[in-house]
Structure to design on (374 residues):
């Protein structure tokens, strides 16, 4: 186990920003969460082998569209959501894990650890960010007999007041309800949900995902410090490629093929970089060129600023003709959670985006997909 520091928080935002894949929360919110958590106390990061075998784990996350105009989440909302879940859970919750890496989502659970004393598990529902709660639900959409309790807290106080809701039912139904709540309360809301035994996490989560993001952030920071001036951007890009075993797909000016449209709790649109297009649903979900699929979720897809090497968020992509680098890492080269290849979740993405995902699943995940479908 290790105490998480202000340096770790800074690295979490940097590395998490790459795994955000265009979404994954917001940089400034990640800075706020990390600063608050490490100032109040010292969050504790634990590996799956450092917890008792009978430990129970909850997933903590934020739900909504990062480009929503009226969102509001306060750090205390994350604490309130988990405390409400702990009060109603039939099992004691000793650790929490994030549903995904991202600008701010890599830090999910840190403030809960500082305030409530739970451990932050070095695992995630997905090594990269994704648009639906189902994709970070550890394959629970198809676990026979599983009933979830999901709590949300927060909302835009000025417009809607504080909102708290406790929901029990199937993962698929509760996820849809929470998405609707996020829309109705301003665009984003904090959640705590899906209490499961440690053994289920061991078999279905992306293990080591938080350490990976921290290491990536440290690499990026060192590259920037050691290569000032014009060489900085390329040095940071190379540090990303080395840590995530990625490759450059394209370099060029970022254009809007389809402008961002926020509705239904998601940011929809498509970017163009040279001959390549990148459709997104909150996050970058595919790369295509000349009618050919180049990369597909759950591959990690990142767009980096050429001059700094720092990741670009969908909400910050303004028309202006700036140069970017399109980077992809194969899903099989990084920790891969069961929920990232969940056919129920991916079928929903196909319906929302009108593009195929299931046919492009990593070939060595066929047995996992079959097990989740049974």
């Amino acid at each position: 186990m290790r105490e998480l520091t202000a340096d770790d928080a800074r690295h979490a935002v940097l590395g998490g920003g790459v795994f955000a894949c265009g979404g994954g929360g917001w940089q400034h919110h990640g800075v706020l969460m990390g600063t608050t958590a490490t100032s109040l106390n010292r969050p504790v990061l634990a590996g799956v082998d450092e917890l008792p075998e009978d430990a129970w784990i909850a997933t903590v996350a934020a739900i909504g569209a990062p480009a929503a105009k009226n969102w509001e989440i306060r750090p205390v909302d994350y604490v309130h959501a988990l405390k409400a879940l702990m009060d109603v859970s039939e099992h004691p919750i000793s650790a929490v894990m994030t549903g995904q890496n991202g600008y701010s989502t890599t830090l999910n659970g840190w403030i809960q650890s500082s305030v409530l004393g739970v451990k932050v598990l070095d695992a995630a529902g997905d090594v990269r960010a994704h648009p639906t709660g189902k994709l970070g639900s550890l394959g629970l959409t198809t676990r026979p007999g599983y009933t979830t309790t999901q709590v949300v807290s927060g909302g835009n106080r000025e417009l809607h007041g504080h909102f708290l809701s406790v929901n029990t039912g199937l993962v698929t139904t509760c996820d849809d309800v929470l998405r609707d709540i996020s829309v109705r309360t301003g665009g984003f809301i904090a959640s705590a949900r899906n209490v499961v035994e440690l053994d289920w996490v061991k078999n279905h989560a992306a293990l080591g995902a938080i350490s990976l993001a921290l290491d990536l952030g440290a690499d990026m920071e060192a590259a920037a410090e050691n290569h000032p001036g014009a060489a900085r951007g390329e040095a940071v890009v190379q540090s990303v490629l080395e840590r995530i075993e990625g490759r450059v797909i394209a370099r060029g000016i970022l254009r809007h093929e389809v402008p961002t449209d926020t509705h239904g709790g998601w940011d929809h649109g498509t970017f163009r970089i040279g001959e390549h297009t990148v459709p997104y649903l909150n996050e970058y979900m595919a790369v295509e060129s000349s009618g050919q699929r180049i990369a597909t979720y759950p591959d990690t897809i990142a767009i980096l600023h050429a001059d700094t090497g720092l990741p670009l968020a969908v909400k910050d992509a303004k028309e202006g003709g700036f140069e970017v680098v399109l980077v992809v890492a194969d899903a099989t080269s990084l920790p891969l959670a069961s929920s990232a290849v969940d056919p129920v979740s991916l079928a929903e993405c196909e319906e929302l985006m009108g593009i195929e995902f299931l046919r492009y699943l990593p070939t060595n995940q066929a047995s996992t997909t079959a097990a989740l479908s049974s």
Notes: The longest strand covers residues 247-263. The two ends are 36 Å apart (CA to CA). Confidence is low (pLDDT under 50) at residues 365-374. The CA atoms of residues 10 and 106 lie 11 Å apart.
